[in-house]
Specification:
- The protein is of the alpha/beta class.
- Helix content is 36%, strand content 14%.
- α2 runs antiparallel to α9, α5 (97-111) packs across α6 (127-140) and α10 packs parallel to α12.
- The longest helix has 22 residues, at 297-318.
- The radius of gyration is 22 Å and the shape is globular.
- The two termini are 21 Å apart.
Length: 395
């Protein structure tokens, strides 16, 4: 056994989060793609079976009230809130991330002072965010201004209405400075909108403490909600009385069952709802969140950094020099919970790794991505992945 293997074993033995791995359905595969799709918590299938057979099969329509279906979007939002540093009553669950980006960007332009006609968008954003923001700009008469997150403070001006940024860059794993950028946006009189898809559940976000205006995020990555699980929308309490959604559906009405022709918005985060909740996937998400009971996000962050540090150390020790280059920042303050390695033949390399039991993914043309989900990934996984990567590259 190598020194790195021995260290990995010792680190796993000392890891306070290691027992959580048993809460998930996993096998001998080294699963480093939880930043795309989180693993299945073991207890979720039984919960969904109960929903299918009793709540839907027996109670049927009564479950909207008796089983709490109607209030699920806010109830589950309140369970996500501590993970992202938000007080209760500010997060509603439902729809996709894309739909929530649309709601947030348009609502942000309506919250901004009159006369502002620019929307600053992360120049390296996940493509859908850019597509949605561009469409929102066309519909509202605004102009899109692509800008690197580090350059946002200099790009802000009297015409800036809203700024849409990703907390973690999905390609490189770079963590952007949410506190400083939010402060700069608000000081300029604009509205800050954050996409938390690659940070929520992996590191502290502290939405309330840092004064974020609006935020969106998915739940199928680090929150392990399942494929296509519903996203969420955060509306800071100070904005809720005037939050004006561009999708005023019937479930966000102040009296939805009155079925009146005129729209009157409900109070609070409920304004972010649109149509009938997708109950099966929503309740699967609610059950998945049980794995977070008693887990502190600071402990998760500490393990995430330790895992990515150790993986990079193993890569440096095992991989032939010059075959890969890390594009993920070395500084902890700038790193999310993934490691991205630039590799000339990334696609066949990842295919070979998957065939050997190490599952990551890639971003074309040349980036290998390895996601480290601290609730179930261990140090032995990191060492094994680096060692098998070296074998593939040497072969």
């Amino acid at each position: 056994m190598s020194d790195l293997q021995e260290r990995a074993r010792a680190l796993d033995t000392a890891d306070e989060l290691a027992p959580l791995r048993e809460l998930f359905t996993l096998d001998d595969t080294v699963y480093l793609d939880g930043n795309s799709l989180g693993a299945l918590p073991r207890h979720v299938p039984a919960r969904i079976q109960e929903v299918l057979t009793r709540e839907w099969g027996e109670l049927r329509i009564r479950s909207w009230g008796e089983s709490g279906w109607w209030t699920a979007p806010e109830r589950i939002g309140d369970r996500i809130a501590p993970i992202v540093g938000a007080a209760a009553g500010q997060i509603v669950v439902g729809d996709s991330t894309s739909v929530n980006v649309f709601k947030a960007v348009v609502a942000a332009t309506r919250l901004a002072p009159e006369g502002r006609d620019e929307i600053l968008v992360d120049a390296h954003t996940f493509p859908t965010d850019g597509y949605i923001a561009a469409s929102a700009a066309r519909m509202t008469g605004h102009r899109i201004v692509p800008v690197a997150p580090a350059d946002v403070p200099d790009a802000l001006g009297p015409r800036t209405a809203a700024v849409l940024l990703n907390h973690v860059d999905y390609r490189s794993g770079r963590l952007h400075d949410l506190p400083a950028l939010t402060a700069a946006v608000r000081a300029a009189g604009a509205v800050a909108v954050w996409d938390l898809c690659h940070s929520a559940g992996a590191l502290p976000v502290d939405l309330d403490r840092h004064g974020v205006d609006l935020a969106v995020g998915c739940t199928y990555k680090y929150l392990n909600g399942g494929p296509g699980s519903p996203a969420y929308l955060y509306v800071a309490a100070r904005h809720q009385p005037v939050f004006d959604s561009p999708l005023p559906g019937w479930t966000s009405h102040a009296d939805p069952f009155a079925m009146t022709p005129g729209y009157e918005a409900a109070e609070g985060a409920v304004r972010g709802r649109v149509g009938t909740p997708d109950i099966l996937s929503m309740l699967a998400l609610e059950s998945s969140l049980d794995v977070w009971d008693g887990v502190g996000i600071e402990a998760v962050r500490a393990k995430s950094l330790a895992l990515t540090d150790f993986f990079l150390e193993c890569v440096a020790a095992y991989v032939p020099e010059g075959r890969v280059t890390s594009v993920t920042p070395a500084a902890h303050a700038e790193r999310g919970s993934q490691v991205a390695l630039r590799c000339e033949d990334a696609e066949p390399v990842m295919a070979a790794l998957i065939a050997r039991g190490v599952v990551g993914d890639l971003r074309r043309p040349d980036v290998l991505r390895f996601g480290f989900t601290p609730l179930y990934v261990g140090f032995a996984d990191a060492e094994c992945a680096a060692r098998l990567l070296a074998d593939v590259l040497a072969g």
